Amino acid sequence: MSKVHILDHPLIQHKLTYIRDKRTGTKEFRELVDEVSTLMAYEITRGMPLKEVKVETPVAPATCHVISGKKVGVIPILRAGLGMVDGILKLIPAAKVGHIGLYRDPDTHEPVEYYAKLPSDIEERELIVTDPMLATGGSAAAAIHMLKEKGAHNVKLMCIIAAPEGIERVQKQHPDVEIFVAAVDEKLNEKCYIVPGLGDAGDRLFGTK
Ligand code: PRP
Ligand code: URA
């Protein structure tokens, strides 16, 4: 069973409160999602391997460390996952970005694919799939399945809010994928929205509805 990391850093939890608040408008919502994504990226990269390098400081030679290992790919699930990309790229600016377009069918709540454009070398990269909401888990599970079909074998999932149902589905279908979330909420309602959640992440990010 894959591990679930709940990122309970006080800055993340503080900002998440304002993200949830229905009075928070589009501009501020976008900024907060961006900031939380940067903070989550800091945590998600904690296990990255390092290698030794030598540098000359102005005073003396020094043995230091730089990140080694696989390069990163960020894979937002459209639309709402886009809101998390820039926040991650602030810390990992050389990461390549692939896009997977999925929307939930309003009746069945199952994901429908409408777009995919991925870096050519995903099998060599450490991939971070982003989506603010992990509700039924259908969208995330389908996106990860698509990546694996194209050769990916190193995938992490980064969501802001998850429902227990979504975590369970991803864990069941992708036991190798570690899940990073800022909060695990109570449940899904009859429309498969997360309760209490934050509403519709895509609409709040882009000012639609
Ligand atoms: C939302 C959200 C996830 C999905 C989560 O996207 O951003 O992608 O629903 O639900 P699930 O876990 O039950 O699949 P939506 O389909 O509303 O599309 P949007 O991002 O274009 O608004
Ligand atoms: N998608 C959202 O944007 N919000 C939810 O609560 C569930 C799915």
TrEMBL record:
<dbReference type="InterPro" id="IPR000836">
    <property type="entry name" value="PRTase_dom"/>
</dbReference>
<feature type="binding site">
    <location>
        <begin position="131"/>
        <end position="139"/>
    </location>
    <ligand>
        <name>5-phospho-alpha-D-ribose 1-diphosphate</name>
    </ligand>
</feature>
<feature type="binding site">
    <location>
        <position position="200"/>
    </location>
    <ligand>
        <name>5-phospho-alpha-D-ribose 1-diphosphate</name>
    </ligand>
</feature>
<dbReference type="GO" id="GO:0044206">
    <property type="term" value="P:UMP salvage"/>
</dbReference>
<dbReference type="Pfam" id="PF14681">
    <property type="entry name" value="UPRTase"/>
</dbReference>
<dbReference type="GO" id="GO:0005737">
    <property type="term" value="C:cytoplasm"/>
</dbReference>
<feature type="domain" description="Phosphoribosyltransferase">
    <location>
        <begin position="7"/>
        <end position="208"/>
    </location>
</feature>
<dbReference type="GO" id="GO:0000287">
    <property type="term" value="F:magnesium ion binding"/>
</dbReference>
<comment type="function">
    <text>Catalyzes the conversion of uracil and 5-phospho-alpha-D-ribose 1-diphosphate (PRPP) to UMP and diphosphate.</text>
</comment>
<dbReference type="GO" id="GO:0004845">
    <property type="term" value="F:uracil phosphoribosyltransferase activity"/>
</dbReference>
<comment type="similarity">
    <text>Belongs to the UPRTase family.</text>
</comment>
<protein>
    <recommendedName>
        <fullName>Uracil phosphoribosyltransferase</fullName>
        <ecNumber>2.4.2.9</ecNumber>
    </recommendedName>
</protein>
<keyword id="KW-0342">GTP-binding</keyword>
<keyword id="KW-0021">Allosteric enzyme</keyword>
<feature type="binding site">
    <location>
        <position position="104"/>
    </location>
    <ligand>
        <name>5-phospho-alpha-D-ribose 1-diphosphate</name>
    </ligand>
</feature>
<dbReference type="InterPro" id="IPR050054">
    <property type="entry name" value="UPRTase/APRTase"/>
</dbReference>
<feature type="binding site">
    <location>
        <position position="79"/>
    </location>
    <ligand>
        <name>5-phospho-alpha-D-ribose 1-diphosphate</name>
    </ligand>
</feature>
<dbReference type="InterPro" id="IPR034332">
    <property type="entry name" value="Upp_B"/>
</dbReference>
<dbReference type="InterPro" id="IPR029057">
    <property type="entry name" value="PRTase-like"/>
</dbReference>
<comment type="pathway">
    <text>Pyrimidine metabolism; UMP biosynthesis via salvage pathway; UMP from uracil: step 1/1.</text>
</comment>
<dbReference type="GO" id="GO:0006223">
    <property type="term" value="P:uracil salvage"/>
</dbReference>
<dbReference type="GO" id="GO:0005525">
    <property type="term" value="F:GTP binding"/>
</dbReference>
<dbReference type="InterPro" id="IPR005765">
    <property type="entry name" value="UPRT"/>
</dbReference>
<feature type="binding site">
    <location>
        <position position="194"/>
    </location>
    <ligand>
        <name>uracil</name>
    </ligand>
</feature>
<keyword id="KW-0547">Nucleotide-binding</keyword>
<keyword id="KW-0328">Glycosyltransferase</keyword>
<keyword id="KW-0460">Magnesium</keyword>
<keyword id="KW-0808">Transferase</keyword>
<feature type="binding site">
    <location>
        <begin position="199"/>
        <end position="201"/>
    </location>
    <ligand>
        <name>uracil</name>
    </ligand>
</feature>
